[in-house]
Amino acid sequence: MSQQGYVATPPYSQSQPGIGLSPPHYGHYGDPSHAGSPPGMMKPAGPLGAAAPGGMLPQGPSPPGPQQFGQNGAHAQGHPPQRFPGPPPVNSVAPSYAPYSPSTQSSYPSPASTASVTQMASQLNAMHINSYGSGMAPPGQGPPGPPSAPLFQGLPRPPQPSIMQPGSQVLPPPPTALNGPGASPLPPSTHRQDGLPGPAPLNAQYQPPPLPGQTLGTGYSPQQAGSYGPQMAGGQLSYPGGFPGGPAQLAGPPQLQKKLDPDSIPSPIQVIENDRATRGGQVYATNSRGQVPPLVTTDCVIQDQGNASPRYIRCTTYCFPCTSDMAKQAQIPLAAVIKPFATIPSNETPLYLVNHGENGPVRCNRCKAYMCPFMQFIEGGRRYQCGFCNCVNDVPPFYFQHLDHIGRRLDHYEKPELSLGSYEYVATLDYCRKNKPPNPPAFIFMIDVSYSNIKNGLVKLICEELKTVLENLPKEEQEETSAIRVGFITYNKVLHFFNVKSNLAQPQMMVVTDVGEVFVPLLDGFLVNYQESQSVIHNLLDQIPEMFADSNENETVFAPVIQAGMEALKAADCPGKLFIFHSSLPTAEAPGKLKNRDDKKLINTDKEKILFQPQTNVYDSLAKDCVAHGCCVTLFLFPSQYVDVASLGLVPQLTGGTLYKYNNFQMHMDSQQFLNDLRNDIEKKIGFDAIMRIRTSTGFRATDFFGGIFMNNTTDVEMAAIDCDKAVTVEFKHDDKLAEDSGALIQCAVLYTTIGGQRRLRIHNLSLNCSSQLADLYKSCETDALINFFAKSAFKAVLHQPLKVIREILVNQTAHMLACYRKNCASPSAASQLILPDSMKVLPVYMNCLLKNCVLLSRPEISTDERAYQRQLVMTMGVADSQLFFYPQLLPIHTLDVKSTALPTAIRCSESRLSEEGIFLLANGLNMFLWLGVSSPPELIQGIFNVPSFAHINTDMTTLPEVGNPYSQTLRMIISIIQQKRPYSMKLTIVKQREQPEMVFRQFLVEDKGLYGGSSYVDFLCCVHKEICQLLN
Amino acid sequence: QNEERDGVRFSWNVWPSSRLEATRMVVPLACLLTPLKERPDLPPVQYEPVLCSRTTCKAILNPLCQVDYRAKLWACNFCFQRNQFPPAYTGISEVNQPAELMPQFSTIEYVIQRGAQSPLIFLYVVDTCLEEDDLQALKESLQMSLSLLPPDALVGLITFGRMVQVHELSCEGISKSYVFRGTKDLTAKQIQDMLGLTKPAMPMQQARPGQPHEQPFVSSRFLQPVHKIDMNLTDLLGELQRDPWPVTQGKRPLRSTGVALSIAVGLLEGTFPNTGARIMLFTGGPPTQGPGMVVGDELKVPIRSWHDIEKDNARFMKKATKHYEMLANRTATNGHCIDIYACALDQTGLLEMKCCANLTGGHMVMGDSFNTSLFKQTFQRIFSKDFNGDFRMAFGATLEVKTSRELKVAGAIGPCVSLNVKGPCVSENELGVGGTSQWKICGLDPTSTLGIYFEVVNQHNAPVPQGGRGAIQFVTQYQHSSTQRRIRVTTIARNWADAQSQLRHIEAAFDQEAAAVLMARLGVFRAESEEGPDVLRWLDRQLIRLCQKFGQYNKEDPTSFRLSDSFSLYPQFMFHLRRSPFLQVFNNSPDESSYYRHHFARQDLTQSLIMIQPILYSYSFHGPPEPVLLDSSSILAERILLMDTFFQIVIYLGETIAQWRKAGYQDMPEYENFKHLLQAPLDDAQEILQARFPMPRYINTEHGGSQARFLLSKVNPSQTHNNLYAWGQETGAPILTDDVSLQVFMDHLKKLAVSSA
After folding, report:
1. Where is the Sec23/Sec24 beta-sandwich domain (chain A) (predicted)?
2. Domain check: are B319 and B301 in the same one?
3. With an 8 Å Cβ cutoff, is A506 touching chain B?
4. pTM of the entire predicted model
C-alpha cells in the first residue's frame, strides 16, 4: 500500500520516486473517506469555462459560450492585478517562465514556417490553460497578455508578442476558451483581486470549498460563502474562478457535483474535433525534430521526411527534459509507443527496401546503429559520425559518396536510409538463425474437438471457414501464391495430428496420447502447401466434425497443444503461428493442467494480483520456448465458464499472438464476429521470429518495455511474431544530461522474417527535442500516448501490486504532473485554481477512464477472466486503439446527415448526452452498441431495421439488416468505417433504452459514475484538483 | 519305443534305483518331451480328466492306475490315494473301460468345454526403417498372411521407426493411428491409458445414458477380426511408407524396437490376458534408440561383436537385455508369445531380444532380407495346417510334471518359463529352469520339445522292489488353435534297476541320441551364462567320466579302450557339439549364436541331432545316394555332396563334377545321366526345404566356391594343411584349420578315460 512499496518496483514513470513537490500531501485518493466527498475543491472555474484550453474547473450552471466568455474575460481582467500582488504562495511563476521563452527560441531556430506556427499555437494553448492566458487568446487581444508575462518574470521576452500573432492565425476556430476573453465582463476581477492576497482569506466571495467535514451543511449558500470563507483552510479553498454572484452552488462538494456543468470541463470530443479541424486532411511532414503529430483521431496524410511516421512511433512527449532532475520533477513518463508493422494507408508511401549487398546494412562500429538520417557525414564523405554514440566511422568503400556544399551526400535523396525515417534493409545470412536463410513460416490450426465444441457446432464452423480462408493466406506482394505452409491438429485430452500430404488419397490421423511429453509424430505431410494439398485438406476438414461427432470427451489439455505446435515448427525449422480454438479449462492430466481458482474472495485484498498471474510456471517456460523458436500463438477462446484466461493467455501474450474471447459462444449470435476475427487474423500482415532493438542517442536509454514481447536480457526485445496491430511501449530514462542542440534520437530496429521467408530489418528513426524548460516539455506532450503508457504500466503492475496502490499511484502521478505544471509553467494565479496544460487537458478524463477499467476496478461482479482478458488486450495496444478503448466513440445517429460520407461528430460518453428521441452508436474497439431511445423517430427505425416500430425491433441481431434506404446504408457504412481500422471485430449489440441490457451499455458511458464504482469525470477532476492543491501547498 | 506314441525320449530307459548310482551314471536321467507331438491317430476325448483327490497330487487317471471295478475305486499310482470314480463312471467295468485306462492311451487328450473361447490374436509389429524393396516384400507377405489367418482371429498392426504407431483398424475415411515417442519407456498402465483402453470412468457413463452401456471390446479399435477388416488392413499395409524421418549420412535410422514391443505387450496385456496371442515382430535392423537400444545411430560405431562382449565393451547390451527380459516375462505371464523375424545383413540385436522368443515360445527367424524366399516361405509356414486343418500352433500352455516318489523333477530346458509351483516332486537341485513342477509355454507347435531333467531321490538303503516301475505323468494344458482348451496327458513308466547288479541292463537302455541332445541342451544352457571354455571343459569332463564309467579298458592303456554299441556314437556327437555354433562363438556374430541356440533349445531329437552333427549325403555315379562321414575325406572330386545342418542346406559339387557342369555336359542328351545326377541332390534338398521350419539357408556351391566354407567348416578336419602330406592320399580335401580332428579328439579321450588320475 505504501508509496514506498511501489517505488521499490519499477514506477510507472521515471519521475515517480522523486516527487518533486510535497510528498506528504500525496495520495489520499484511494482513501474512501476522501473519495466520497471531494471537498470543496470545486471552484468556479468560470474563467475558462467550457473552453477547452484552460482545463479549469468550471462552475455551476453551465453558461453556454457567451457566458463563459464573460467569465473568461473576467479572468483576463483579473489577472494582471492578480499577478502583481506577487507570486502567490506556492507557485514560483518566475522560474517557470524563464525557461519558457528561451526554449521556444532554441527549439525553433529555423524559420520553418508551418512548424513554428504549430508550435506557437500550442504555446498559445498552453498559455490559455494557465488562466492568465485566456485573456490573451483572442487574436486581437494581445495587449493584456503579453505585458503580463514580462511583468512577472522580469525577463523581457521578445518572443512572446510574436507568439501571439502566429497563434492567432493558427487557431482559426479556437476552442471556446480562446474566444472568451474578449467579451469578458469585468466584474469578477474585483473579486479576484480581493481574493488574491492570501490563500485563506480569498475565499470570501468565491464559494470556497469547505473542508470535507463542514461542507455539507454549510457550504451551501452562495453569496454567503464569504462568511464561511474564513473557515476554509488554506489548501482546499483554492477556487480562483471568481464567481461573483450567482453560483452559490460552488460551495459544497456534493452540490458542486450536481451543479457543475459538464460542458464546462475539458471535453475530449472538443479536443479531438479541434485537432481534426486544424490538422485533419492535411499533409503532415515529419521533417523537423520534435514536432508533435496530429492526434490519433485525426486523419491526415503523413509524409516521411526523415522521421518515422507517428503511425509507427508515438511519444508521450516530443521534447525530453534535459536532465533527469527535471524529468523527476515533472513526472511525465518519457515513453514511445512503437507499432513497427503498423498498417499504412494506401495513399502513403510504403517502406522502401534497401539492399546493401552481401556486406549487410551499414552500421556504426560502436553502437551498431543502422545507417540513418542521423548519421553525419564528414571529411568529404569518407567518414561519418554516428548520431547515437558519436563514434566516427569510416564509410565502407562501396558506400562512398561525395558531399555537397551543405555537407550532405549527393545521393541523399536517392537513398531511403539517408532521407527517410522508416525503411527496410535486406538482412544477410549473418542475421539469420544458424546462418541459414529461414524457411517460410507455417500456420498450424489446432482445434479443440471436445464435446462442447462439437455440440455447439463450432468445430464445423471452423472447418468450413478454413476451407475458404486458407485461400487468402498472406503472401508477399510480388508472389503469386503464399509461401506459408499449413498444418492441422485437433485435440481434446489427446492430440491428433494429420498427414495431409498431397499424394495421399485421404488424410491420415496420428494420435499422440503422451501429453506429458508431447512430440511431433510426423514430419513429411504435416506442414503442406495449401494449394498442393487442397483436396486432401478439404477432405480432412469435411471429416473432422464427423469424426468426433459422437465424442463425449469433456476434458482438454492446453499446454501440450502449444508444445506440439511449437515442436512441429521446430522440426520443420521454420517460424510460424498457431491458431488455437479452445473452449474450456484444461483439466486433463497433463503439463499445464489448471484448476478452477477463480476466488472472488481475493478481490480487494493484497492477493488479488494472484488472479492475474498464471497458475503454473509451465506456461511461462513454454512461452519462452515458443519465442526461441519463432512460434507465435493466437488463441480463440470460447468459454462458457471460467477458463483462467490469465494462465491460458500468457503464451499468446508473450509470443506476440492475439487472444480472442467469445463468451458463451452461440452460433447465430457470435459466429460472424468470430469469423471476421479469424479472417483478419489469418490475413493480416505479420513478421516472424523478430528481435527489436531500441537504440538511443547518448544521455538516455530504453529501460522498460511493455507489449507482446519476451525479453531474455535487458535490451533485446524478442517477439515470436509481431503483426500490424501490435505495439510495444518503451520507457526511457536519463543516463546523463541531454543537450538541447543535439536532441534525443531514437532508432528502433526490428529484425524479422517475412511471410515469404525473407530476413529483413525494419528501421524506424525518430528525433525528439530536448529542453531545459519544463514548459517545453508540457507543450509537447501527447495525452493519448501517455494514457497508453499509463495503462500498460499499470496493467503490468497489476501482477505484482495491490490494485489499490496502483490506483493511488496513477492518481498521484496525474496530480503530480499537473501540479508541477501549475507550479512551474502556469502564470501565477490563485493557488486554488485548477490549471491544466493544453496538451494534457483531457488527461484527467482519460485517466479516470483508465481507473474505471474493469482491470483496475476490484469488483466481484466482473468476471476474473474478463479482467485478465482486457488486461492482456491493452498490453499490446497501439495509441489509437487504447484511446478508443478507454474513451469509446459515441455517435449520434438520429442527426445523421445521410448525404455526407463523413462520420458524424462524436459526443461525450455520458448519459446526459443521450436523448429519448435519439439513436446512438457506441464503439470501443471490442464492442459496439446501437442504443435506441424509447422515442426514437419511427422513420429511422423503419429505415434501419425495416420494422414499423420500436417495439418490433429484435435485439437479438448482431448485424443490421440491409435495407435499401439512406439511413440503413449510411449507418452500415459508418459501422464498417469504424470497424475497418480496428484489430478486433466488434459484436454489434442492439440496446433499447430502459431494457435490461442497457446496463451493459452504460458501463461504457465513461464520463458517468460507473455502474460498479469508479467516479464520474467531474468527481475525479475534483479529486485531482484537491491532490494538486495539496501538492502545491 | 514309445516315442511315436508319447513324444518322449529318455536318456536312460532303465532307471538306476538309487540316488547315488544315478549320479554315477554321469548323464542325468532326463527326457526330451514333445508335448504336442502330432498324433493323427489320437482323437481327443470330449470330457474332462479324472483327478486324484489328494490336493497335493491331483494326478490324472491313467492306464497305470490300479482300478477296483467293483468298488468303483482307483488308486493313484503317484501318491497311492484311493479315489472314488465320479458319478459319470458308474458303468465302468473290465470290459467297459474309459479310454484313459487303456494302455494304448498312455497319451490322451481331453477337450475342456468350460470357459469362454476367445479368438486367436495376431499382432503385427512392423519396422518401417527398411529399404524400399524390403518393405515392399514384407508388406506383400503380411498382406498374404491375412488370407492364411483364421477368419475370426483378431489382428492388430503396430508400425515403428523413429516413432511407434498403433493403427486403429476400424475407421472409415481416414486412417488413424496412435503415435508414441520411440525413446520413452512406458508402463503397461500408461500405454493402456494412452490408447484409451482403460474403462471410462463411471460418472461419464452416467452423464451419457444414450451410449451403449458396455462396449463390446475396449480394444476393438486396434484388434479386429480378420474377416471384418482384411480389406482395410490390406490397404493400410499397402500404404505403409518407409519411416519418413530423414536419416543423415553416416547414421542408422532411428528404430524404436524396444518401445514398439513394449507397446505391443502392453496392449495385449491390458486387453487379452491369458488368451492365445502372437506378437509378431518384423525388424530390419538393430534398435537404435530408446529403451532396448542395441547400438547408437552413428554408423561409425559398429554393433557389438563377441569380441566387444568379452571385453565388456558392449555399452547397451545389459540394459537392452534387461528391457527385453522384462517384456518377455510380462508376455509370458500373460500367456502371449513373441515371434521375431529379423531380416538384415548386419546384426539386428537378436542377442538382446532372444529372450522374447525363448521365454515365450515364439519363433525366431533370421534372414538377410524380407525379399528372400527364406523369409517368405518361413513366414508362410507359420500358418501351415495339420491333417485336421488346424494351425500347427498352440498357446498358453502349462506343462505339469508329476513323478513317483523315487523321482523328483530337477528342471526343464526349452521355450518355457517357470511357474514357480513347488510341490513334493520338485527337486532341490536345479538343472535348467528348475525349482518348479510346472512351466508355462506360451507358444508351442507340434515339434516344440523340452528337455526335462529328473533326479532319482531314492536312497541307496531303500531299494525298489524287483520289477518296480517308476512313473512320470506330463500334463499339458493349452489353448488349441481352434481356441479350445485342451489337456494332453502322457503317463509313462520305466523299470527300476539296481545299478550294481544290473548295470548291463541300464547300459543297454542308454539312449545315446537322446542323451547327447539332453547333454547338449545342458551345455548350451550353461553357455548362456558361463564362459565358453568352461562349458567345453565341463562337457569334456562329463564325457570322460562317462567313458570311464561305461568304457571297457585296461588302466593306462588307451588302445584297449572300447565302448559298447549303445555308447558308440556318443563321443562323436560330443566332438561335433564342441565344434558347433551352439558352443563356439568364433566366426559367429552374437546374433547368430542366439539364433542357433534358440532353435537348438526347442527342436525335437532328430532335428537337434542334425544340428549337432550335420548329415552329409553323397551323390555319384558309383551308386545310389548314400550318407557319408562328416569328414573332409568325404569331399571328393567326383561327388556331389548334400549337407544338412538344419540351418543350411549345402549342395557341393566336387571339382570334376563342377568342371563337367561348366562344360555343359548336363545339356547334352548323351549325358542325361549327368543331368539326373545334378538334379538328384536338388530334389532331395527341396524335400528338406519343404519340411523344415524355419526354412534353411539354401546354398548351392562347388569346389573352390566361396560358399563352400559352409561345408568345410562343418566336416571333421581329418585332413588339414598340417597333416596333408602325411596322409599322402589324393582323397578328400584339406581343411585349413588348426582345429583338432575327430581322430585326435578320440585319442585324447581314450587316453584320459583310461588314466587313473
Report:
1. 687-771
2. yes
3. yes
4. 0.80
